[in-house]
Amino acid sequence: MSDVFDTFIRESQDDLLQLNNSLLALEDNPTDAEAIDAVFRVSHNLKGNFGAMGFEAPSDLAHALEDLLDEVREGNMAVTNDRMNLLFEAVDSLDKMVTQIDESGEVQLDPSATVAQLRAEIDGSDGEEVAAPPGDGDDSTDESVDVPFDTLAETEAASAESVFHLDLSIGDGESNLVDAMFVLGDIQDGYTVHAGVPAITDIESGEFEDGFELYVTPDSSADADKIFEEYDDHRYLESVGVTDVTDAVKRGLTGEEGDEDGGSPEDSGGESVLDNHGTEIESIRVDVTTIDELYNQVEEMVTSRIKLRNTIEELGVSEVEKELSEHDKITSRIQDTVLEMRLVPVRTIAGHFPRLVRDIAQDQGKEITFEMTGVDIEMDRSILNEMRDPLVHLIRNAIDHGIEDPDVREAKGKPRGGTIELRGTRERDTVTLAIEDDGAGLDPERIRKKAIEKDVMSPAKIQSLERSAVYELIFHPGFSTNDEVTDISGRGVGMDVVNRVVQSVDGDIDVESEPGEGTCVTLTLPVSVAIERVLFVEIGEEAYGIPIKNVDDISVISDLDVQSIDDSKILSHDSKTYPIIDLGESLSVPNSQQEDDDLIVRVKDDIRKVAMRCNGMNGQEEVVIKPFHGSLSSTEGISGASVLGEGDVVMILDVESL
What is the pLDDT of residues 413-423, one digit of tens each? Predict the structure, then answer.
């Protein structure tokens, strides 16, 4: 794939994400001039990019989309639910075509029907009268206004937060001077009038024809929203044109750069690496495949370091220890740098969630506000990719079975509209992602009943569980409290998969809920991929790794208080008892005989109160742990594998599921 084509795909994907979110903002507030400008600008950019790359069908669709949005921007078309659905349908078609171009270099989808719908909507809007957004009148851009900078230089316009140009038509009636005085007086009551064309003194003397122009600043931010509506049907005015000329005034009077092109460098789909003052390049765009290749090379370097250290220890070449230590430091720094390069913001996958919520909520007739906070925090790209489906599943659950129908919420004394929030926080090497809703919450008694039906555990034990432990039952495979199967997913359906994926990246999941008030599911995840210190243990003729962070202590079994109860072994330590897992039996290792000098590895209490028996120990080392994917990801007792210096593959034990 050429660099140009690759850049085109990335920019198109970024534009479509921005277009989706701007349309959501427009749907939420049809008078949001910033959202209207954004959707028009992005659709215009898409049209040009598709055309430049020779993709006629998506270019035609983007062109039709741009034309419809232009009608909305000019105030000729209202923002209605049906029109928004049509706009979203057009964006979805563009998204599908970009995917097809990315995968095959060609477009298979025929968007002609959607193009026809957009054109028919535009043609059918002739004569439709709608209120224009604030700041939108006969003129919509400051380029159309000949700003009198010499006159404004003598006023406070340069330091004003905003400046509007009003083009006021009085008409040529017999009392136009009186009418003008009423209009001017009303405007001066709510706005600071900087200047007029003709001058204010000339207007007051009646020295104008059928109208005049004013440059004003609202006395409060609240008044700015009324600047068009307030005078559109004024009884002394025939018409009014309103233009925001703030940028033009700033540029003309102070030399400050405005936003005349309608966007910042960040909006252009790529990174701005050189600003207008010629500063040094601060960032570059690196393809993820390049980063992955570099990361693989770092893994090879780590493996080579292990092999080198083992060789030196075997040969006893002590004089190179200093050089080896320096090599370790260099390798560690490179590791840290590469891991930092792999970090991407949570927004990378969360950017599509607002649209997801909007579509599902609308389909179910629910009113839902979706909020995202802390999505600019960063974590490793591979971990974040793994979390995409679990997060989508949790959000769908919150919509489908968390948030109640509006009438049900109202009957409960709740607001008709529900709220779902995605919150991201970071603390040192851990990222926490929480999905919280203010819906119906989980019913612990219903969960207990279903768990008994599913024979998850004995009824007596289920009834004795604390509420927090009851909620953990939803992670049991196949567990669900829903009596009906929906097109979305039931709270509980697939939660075992969510749990397994989270654990596969060395994360944790927690559920808190208050019946009738809502549910919060929290994912605690590592920031970076697992490069950690591992203890290597021998079981028969095989070797396995145990993360050092899970180990409390290691002892020879003959030195410990071990008792036999039935067919099990129990370790007594500090007035506590620990079941002993024989790793040879648990992992079905051949020729793993129990010996008197076997070792007992006791796991930390906060992880799991258990001890493990092995035949020996073979040191510890910092290694790269590769988590399993696909069918191997469900293997209990194994979290992944590591490649040692000699090329040997060693399985890493998951002490929690062993």
Answer: 999 999 999 99
